[in-house]
Amino acid sequence: MKTMGEEGSVQTGHNPNIQSGHLIWVLHCERVIWDRQHTDNEISTRWRNAINTRLTSNKIIATKIKHENKFTNLVVNMWKPLLTKDRPLPHNWITNCEVLVGRRPQYAPMED
Questions:
Q1: Crossing angle for the helix pair 69-83 and 40-60, nearest 10 degrees?
Q2: CB of 20 within 8 A of CB of 83?
Q3: How far is CA 96 from CA 59, 88, 93, in A?
Q4: pLDDT of 82 higher than 50
Q5: Using CA atoms, how far apart are residues 14 and 74, in angstroms rounded to an integer?
Q6: Contact at 8 Å (CB) between 6 and 12?
Q7: Which residues contact 4 (CB under 8 A, 6 or more apart)?
Q8: CA angle in degrees (0–180, nearest 5) for 9-14-19
Q9: How confident is the model at residue 78 (pLDDT cuts 50, 70, 90)?
Q10: What is the pLDDT of residue 61?
Q11: Cα(83)–Cα(42) distance, rounded to whole angstroms?
């Protein structure tokens, strides 16, 4: 039986698909429990913020904490397909601090 090592924890816990699924679950709970309706803009903003938080975490782990090529390659291989759908990535995207590599941050509206 294969055990989950360090690579597995990075792949499963930080996978963009899992983050998206978690956000869908949270939005569903808010709608059902609190009868809260979400606008398309709010959903897009919350998704972008969740993904950016995970991307930033992965980049820090790969480039600042682990300092190993295998972890950097793992992060690059996981995120590059998602990030290159719209436009090519800059050469140094893994160490660049921009939000989702060139996209400006957006914030969900505050509740009253």
A1: 160
A2: no
A3: 9, 14, 5
A4: yes
A5: 11
A6: no
A7: 12
A8: 135
A9: confident
A10: 83
A11: 21
* CA-closest candidate to residue 47, choices 111, 95, 112, 107: 107
Q: Give DSSP secondary structure letters for 21-33.
A: HHHHHHHHHHHHH
19-39 per-position pLDDT tens digit:
889 999 999 999 999 999 999
Backbone angles phi, psi at 2, to 5 degrees: -85, 130
Indicate the residue type of 48: R
Structure tokens at 39: 């606008």
Q: Which residue has the tokens 């816990």?
A: 13
Distance (Å, whole) CA 48 – CA 105 = 8
* Nearest CA-CA partner of 47 in 36, 58, 35, 55: 55
What is the pLDDT averaged over residues 41-67?
A: 86
Q: Measured between alpha carbons, how far apart are the two ends of the chain, in Å?
A: 51
What are the sequence ranges of the domains in the chain?
46-107
